[in-house]
Design a protein that fits this description.
Shape of chain C: elongated
CATH architecture of the largest domain in chain C: Sandwich
Strand content of chain B: under 5%
Number of strands of chain C: 10
Oligomer: heterotrimer
Strand order of the largest sheet of chain C: 3-2-1-5-8
Helix content of chain B: over 70%
Number of domains of chain C: 2
CATH architecture of chain B: Up-down Bundle
Helix content of chain C: 25-40%
Structural class of chain C: alpha+beta
Radius of gyration of chain C: 27 Å
CATH class of chain B: Mainly Alpha
Chains: A mainly alpha (about 600), B mainly alpha (about 230), C alpha+beta (about 270)
CATH class of the largest domain in chain C: Mainly Beta
Number of helices of chain C: 4
Strand content of chain C: 15-25%
Largest sheet of chain C: 5 strands, mixed
Order of helices and strands of chain B: HHHHHHH
CATH topology of the largest domain in chain C: Immunoglobulin-like
Distance between the termini of chain C: 86 Å
Order of helices and strands of chain C: HHHEEEEEEEEEEH
Structural class of chain B: mainly alpha
Radius of gyration of chain B: 21 Å
Largest sheet of chain B: none
Number of helices of chain B: 7
CATH topology of chain B: Four Helix Bundle (Hemerythrin (Met), subunit A)
Chain lengths: ~600, ~230, ~270
């Protein structure tokens, strides 16, 4: 971990490389397996993350089966159920979304979009992937240990997480989970340094910060936040590992188990929660900011219009990034912390809604007076706006301290965060894959299959999570193995649960169409050419598609304009690539 | 959690200053061609910038450990650890190590190969002495009955010194490579950069250690207490 | 066209679901009607924003769909429009935040005349301790827990001698009197949650947290655990019975004499 920047001095900054042959891979193994090419690493990251995503999807099916049809499936007992929700949550948040947005899209897009040959520390970049893979393997291995994986919930609150009343608490489950997280964080730090320093150092000539596409801004800001926030999880994991394995009392107060006092005293369970959410809240935005950035570019490209209020979009990203470090305790309003903190954290949380709202307005205003092509990526982007808006607005319930009191720890919370940081970012991921697949493979994904995939995924996900809010409003708590008899829950609610489960099964199954499309189009997709969407940003201007090692052939691109010159009045085409020097179109366009 | 917030609020103005210098208020659609007025990628090497960002990450890690320490020490069961005297010797060693490496850095800049080798060796030896001294301190503490599990103050002592020691060891691995390169080859630009990065890293770890020491010794607590009384 | 229509249908459908579906909160049984009001305010404001934005989006998708010859309008930004939207958003946020903070202040300020009741969680059942005739709860400590003292109540403290202990049974409360619930856990984190009372708070081992509420309607309500506490989390249920003052006093007298007889048989 320590020698990250030092060990990589050998790699010259990409901008200064004249000879593309400098670190050309020579064998199949170094080209496709132990590759130092960011694009290959990106694909490795993405495929690993998507595989983990499929595991997490199956886990969600299993838990939905239990919730929709309690008692029908005898192999899902309470132990298994809690293990499923824990692994589903942790996998999706950390090992799928974070890894896919930063490791996958970050690696592929940053060098191409800023006009660099590669990341600045390619060797460290390669290590980052292999360490990530190791973390995934450790995590998955916990399914095969005695006692199984941990069932502590993805928040891993002590003392519960390390006690015998929780699956995996006194077995290997929790240990492997903590070790896997620590390994992941080390691997991520290596990757994150690359993403940040590449943006800082390796931008092409003329690529000022304010000419960068919002995708790069989003990934850059999120990487920086992740670098500062993940240590909090690391600290929590180290201390909990000590508590579990060596018997210290960092988080363990004097407690009794099964009527017998244990040999612990004085520890603070709330300390862990503070550490966890100091990581956990920025983590929400670590997933959201790249999605914000990507969706801005999708909307702008497919509406043939500059992103409305680009400067405001950048400032809002930065403001959200900074503010997200001072809102963490809004996850802890009913945790028994000092209640006066509630005033502060409710205020900061609701303030963060303002820059977020500005982003939503600007997306919609980009559509306004545009020339909207309803391509598959655009459909996903529109769906993102709907789901993100919905999830963001329910966030105003949960962030506003007293409104949160009846709703926290109910299905309302589950519905909210799935809408806002589950469904919405995943829709962006799909949109982004449909958008950039032609660049990665040189072929288009099948449009009809894409539309089928889109409509079922979007409408299905909305039908799953929108009604779920009302279960929570009714008072149904989350993380219940079975609701059973509750006097305030009418029988119709059980029908609603069964309905949600059936829709979840359908939405899950339709993802197979997507996976099929990914593989089928590799061979049979329509050849795309270099710039099928007629986009302005640099990654579409590479001399070859898919771009080879080194991206740009002999000469690096020179950037002459910002990333959003769409439909400039007087221009021959409705887009001006960033590296196009001639601005035959610019006279009299400025309205400032 | 005030230490980490303090740390982040120190980073914030740096970030804002940098963003403003990079023209974050400008209107990019009005500018075309290769803008020369704004600084392009700065002349600093990527490795140095990378180290800077990495130090921010380590800083965040230690700030969070210190935050946790500050929360935990307010619990009633907390019993301070008497610091073994050898810690003062160790601190001296780490200081010497930092000075030696700074000497090596200056020697590399001036092209003095002999002084460079001596500086690197001296830095390596004193850093090793620091790590061994820390291990001795652990042995003394366990020998005196301050076990890991008997009180959280002890546990924090072992964890904080351990994490810091691991960072020193990681640095030593890189320093070893750099020293070997200094012995083998001529004074290349790459070697100069290596030495410089090592020196920066060393100074940073020295500062971290002094902060940790002041916290473990309780000075930081008294300092905060005095400030609080002055303010109220 | 179809896309715009579906966006409109989503909006209409969501609003219709909100208004017409049978799933809504359970009737309140405590003084926290204010909390319900803040939720209603939030529903109105956020609902209006949701409808406005999605309908506007649907309009854009229909009106500015790609047609031959259409060119998008070139306009990088409009400071006036953005400023205006920011201000409106700020006002909306303030309109939700201000009542929220106001009610939160009440929520954490316990009235002077509130009666202390201890609620104790353990894997996986609820226990309760009510002050006896002296109106005070005795000291307790997790380290005193043993099979014949499952709550860890100190035997030394005279205030604890007459405490009424209810293990794994019903919590009885009088109607119309403010209750300060002192929440304590002996093992892991639990959460005391009665949907009808709206109030909710974690029970954290090693500390005592609190909430307060005034029951406003008699009846029997369910206590749920709302913080994952291990494999029996969903089974950790209890009952709270809100009674008329006179019924409650009669029950309390009866319990107090019983537990007095149990705890201090030699003294009688």
């Amino acid at each position: 971990m320590v020698d990250v920047p030092l060990g990589s001095i050998g790699a010259a900054p990409a901008a200064a490389v004249d000879d593309v042959e400098l670190y050309h891979p020579h064998s199949w193994l170094t080209k496709y397996v132990f590759s130092q090419d960011a694009k290959i690493i990106a694909i490795q990251y993405s495929l690993t993350a998507l595989s983990v995503g499929l595991i997490a999807l199956v886990l969600s099916w299993l838990m939905r089966l239990q919730l929709g049809f309690p008692g029908v499936f005898s192999f899902i007992d309470a132990n298994a159920y809690y293990q499923f929700i824990t692994m589903h949550g942790m996998m999706m948040v950390v090992y799928v979304l974070t890894a896919l947005f930063l490791g996958g899209f970050g690696n592929y897009l940053i060098p191409l979009m800023v006009g660099a040959r590669d990341m600045v520390f390619p060797y460290v970049n390669m290590l980052s992937f292999w360490i990530y893979l190791l973390a995934v393997l450790i995590l998955v291995a916990s399914f095969f240990t005695p006692g199984g994986p941990t069932g502590a919930g993805w928040t891993l609150y002590p003392p519960q997480a390390i006690m015998s009343g929780t699956p995996g608490g006194q077995d290997w489950g929790i240990i492997l989970m903590l070790v896997s997280l620590m390994v992941f964080i080390i691997g991520f730090t290596m990757g994150g340094l690359n993403y940040v320093v590449t943006v800082l150092q390796a931008r092409a000539r003329g690529m000022t910060l304010m000419r960068m596409p919002l995708t790069v801004w989003g990934i850059f800001t999120a990487s920086f936040m992740a670098l500062l926030a993940f240590p909090a999880l690391f600290v929590g994991a180290v201390m909990m590992l000590f508590d579990r394995a060596l018997g210290t009392s960092f988080f363990m107060p004097a407690i009794a188990e099964m009527g017998q006092p244990l040999e612990r005293s004085g520890g603070s369970p709330l300390l862990f929660q503070h550490l966890f959410w100091f990581f956990g809240h920025p983590e929400v935005y670590i997933v959201a900011l790249p999605a914000f950035g990507i969706v801005s570019d999708l909307i702008s490209t497919h509406a043939r219009r500059n992103i409305f209020g680009y400067r405001m979009m950048v400032w809002a990203l930065l403001a959200i990034g900074a503010l997200s470090f001072v809102v963490w305790a809004h996850h802890m309003y009913v945790s028994g912390m000092n209640p006066y903190f509630g005033f502060f954290f409710a205020t900061t949380t609701l303030i963060i809604a303002i820059p977020t709202a500005i982003k939503v307005y600007n997306w919609v205003l980009t559509l306004w007076r545009g020339d909207i092509h309803l391509t598959v990526p655009m459909l996903f982007a529109l769906a993102f706006i709907v789901t993100f808006l919905n999830g963001g607005l329910t966030g105003l319930f949960l962030g506003n301290v007293v409104v949160d009191v009846p709703l926290s720890d109910t299905m309302f919370v589950v519905a909210h965060f799935h809408m806002v940081m589950g469904v919405a970012p995943i829709l962006v991921i799909f949109g982004a894959i449909y958008h950039w697949y032609p660049k990665v493979t040189g072929r288009m994904l099948n449009d009809a299959l894409g539309k089928l995939h889109f409509w079922i995924t979007f409408l299905g996900a909305y039908a799953i999570f929108f009604p779920m809010h009302y279960l929570g409003l009714m008072g149904v708590p989350r993380r219940y193995y079975e609701i059973g008899e509750m006097s305030f829950v009418p029988p119709s609610a059980h029908m609603l649960n069964a309905f949600i489960t059936i829709v979840a099964l359908i939405v899950g199954a339709i993802q197979l169409v997507f996976v099929f499309n990914l593989f089928w189009s590799l061979r049979h997709g329509r050849p795309s050419g270099g710039n099928p969407w007629r986009a302005t940003t640099l990654e579409w201007q590479t001399p070859e598609t898919p771009p080879p090692h080194g991206n740009w052939g002999r000469e690096l691109p020179v950037v002459h304009r910002w990333a959003y010159d769409y439909s400039v009045p007087g221009a021959a085409e409705d887009f001006l690539p960033q590296n196009q020097p001639n601005a035959q179109a610019r006279q009299g366009t400025s309205n400032e | 959690m005030s230490s980490i917030l303090l740390f982040l609020s120190a980073l914030l103005p740096i970030g804002m200053w940098w963003l403003l210098r990079q023209g974050v208020m400008s209107k990019p659609w009005l500018e075309q061609g290769v803008v020369e007025g704004l600084p392009g990628p700065p002349p600093t090497s990527a490795a140095k910038v990378g180290l800077g960002v990495f130090l921010a990450v380590i800083g965040s890690l230690f700030a969070l450990f210190i935050s946790a320490y500050a929360v935990r020490m307010q619990m009633p069961d907390w019993r301070d650890v008497p610091l073994p005297n050898i810690l003062w010797l160790n601190s001296g060693m780490l200081l010497l190590s930092s000075i030696a490496l700074q000497g090596a850095r200056n020697a590399a800049r001036d092209g003095d190969a002999m002084a460079l080798k001596i500086g690197l060796l001296a830095a390596g030896v004193t850093a090793l002495a620091f790590v061994s001294g820390q291990l001795l301190a652990w042995r003394q503490l366990t020998g005196n009955g301050y076990l890991l599990t008997s009180n959280s103050a002890n546990a924090f002592f072992y964890v904080l010194t351990g994490i810091h020691g691991l960072h020193v060891l990681g640095g030593l691995a890189v320093l070893g490579r750099t020293t070997a390169a200094a012995w083998r080859g001529r004074l290349s630009e790459r070697l100069k950069l290596s030495v410089e990065l090592c020196a920066i890293y060393w100074h940073f770890l020295l500062v971290v250690w002094l902060i940790l020491l002041s916290i473990l010794a309780g000075w930081a607590g008294s300092f905060v207490e005095i400030c609080r009384q002055l303010l109220t | 066209m179809a896309v715009a229509l579906i966006l409109v249908l989503i909006t209409v459908g969501s609003v219709a679901f909100h208004l017409l579906s049978p799933w809504w909160w359970t009737p309140i049984a405590s003084n926290w009607a204010y909390i319900d009001s803040t939720i209603i305010i939030t529903f109105w404001i956020t609902g209006a924003v949701f409808v406005a934005v999605v309908l506007f989006m649907a309009y854009c998708v229909y009106r500015f769909r790609h047609q031959p010859g259409r060119q998008a309008h070139y306009e990088p930004e409009s400071r006036r429009l953005e400023l205006w939207l920011t201000v409106v958003t700020g006002v909306g946020v303030a309109a939700m935040l201000a009542p929220g903070l106001f009610v939160w202040r009440q929520f954490i300020t316990v009235p002077q005349d509130a009666t202390d009741v201890e609620i104790l969680g353990q894997q996986w059942q609820w226990s309760f301790r009510l002050p006896g005739p002296d109106g005070k709860l005795g000291v307790s400590d997790t380290r005193l827990i043993s099979p014949d003292n499952p709550l860890g109540v100190s035997r030394e403290d005279p205030a604890g001698q007459d405490d009424v202990i209810v293990e794994g049974g019903e919590l009885r409360l009088p109607i119309g009197k403010p209750i300060k619930a002192l929440l304590r856990s002996v093992d892991v984190i639990h959460d005391f949650y009665v949907p009808e009372m709206r109030a909710k708070m974690d029970l954290v081992p090693g500390q005592v947290s609190y909430i307060w509420f005034t029951p406003t309607r008699t009846g029997t309500f369910e206590i749920l655990c709302a913080e994952l506490c291990g494999v029996g989390h969903a089974q950790m249920r209890g009952t709270v019975v809100v009674q008329e003052q006179s019924d409650y006093q009669a029950w309390l007298q009866d319990q107090a004499s019983r537990s007095f007889a149990r705890l201090a048989p030699a003294a009688q």
